[in-house]
Amino acid sequence: MEASSLALGFHRQIPSKRRFTTDRSRIARRKTAYICRGGAGGLEVPSFKLERNYKGKIARYYDKASEKYDVGPWHHEIAKKLIDGCELKGGEKVLDLCTGTGISALLAADGVGENGRVVGVDISPLMLEKLEEKLTHDKRGGRVEAILGDAETIDFPPQSFDWILCSSAFIWMTDLVTVLARWREFLVPGGGLAFHAFPEEAFVTGVELIDAAAKNGVELTFSQPTGTESLVEDLLTHSGYSGVEIHRESAGNWMAVEKAEAAFEGMMDVQGPMMGPIEDLPKDIIDSIRTDYIEGIRSRATEDGVWNDMSILYTYAKKN
User: For residues 58 and 259, which has the higher predicted lDDT (pLDDT)?
Assistant: First the structure.
């Protein structure tokens, strides 16, 4: 069953309590399994253990984050830079996947003008409620539709969009080649895809957590499958895209050692998708991972703290 927005000419459906459309049949209920990030064209991409109810964890993680997600400039700045690179035109139709509170969707609505349309899809109900609050009071609200659904399984008619966006969320996809090929079907010929990828050295807490987990026999991937320009280009090429452009923006900041150490407990408390299999391990293994993580953080310590790389790969590609 395809999502309703295109069939309805982008008119918004308004359920009884929430205004956004719910694509209930498409919200994945995942169980523990081993799957491969890849498949098409023989591309080898690291496999990982997909924990039970992985998508539910993502939804809960962002539900909790929804209250403060718009606080601070980072999400706003990187979304604007991503969309500026698209050079959107008036009248175009844009699909914003993992739209969250609609930062990218509203920026895209500016780009496509009064005759354009934007559809935002997110798996977190509370993030979408924040978007709907914005749409109620924003003059761009009539150009934006919000749909509750899974970016990997949401369905639209072929050739429905001129652009597909995915700001700072591509790392949560479970099968990169398959989902890229699926999204490609939604694009018109010559349509564009834009997303953020993060280098493998980005976010020191995640890097150290990967290393600490590996020392204890637990595999985490985070940004590794898209951690270099060549990996990203290979993914897109094997998924049928052309004209790939990747712009690396180097950035980062100094983090207090104590804050970096405490991040482990913070991630355990959130129990979001980042912790994956760790939270279900026996206590002695978790304690060992914690010890190795703290040792790794301390090995990076300087007088200024720990350097937290926040570089981004701004990625663009076209449908053949």
Answer: 259
| Helix and strand numbers, DSSP H then E, in the chain | 10, 12
Beta strands in the chain (DSSP E): 21-22, 33-36, 47-50, 93-97, 117-122, 144-148, 161-166, 187-197, 241-249, 252-255, 306-309, 312-319
Q: Report whether 296 contacts 173 (CB < 8 A).
A: no
The pLDDT tens digits of the residues spanning 301-313 come to: 999 999 999 999 9
CB 246 within 8 A of CB 195: no
- pLDDT digit string (tens) for 33-60? 222 223 334 444 443 344 457 888 889 8
Partners of 118 in beta bridges: 94, 144
Q: How far is CA 190 from each of CA 12, 184, 315, rounded to the nearest angstrom?
A: 27, 10, 16
Instruction: List the beta bridge partners of residue 120.
Output: 96, 146
Structure tokens at 89: 């035109």
Listed residue (174, 196, 130, 178) closest to 28, CA to CA:
174
- The pTM score is 0.84
Contact 281, 200 (CB under 8 A): no
Fill in the DSSP letter of residue 162.
E
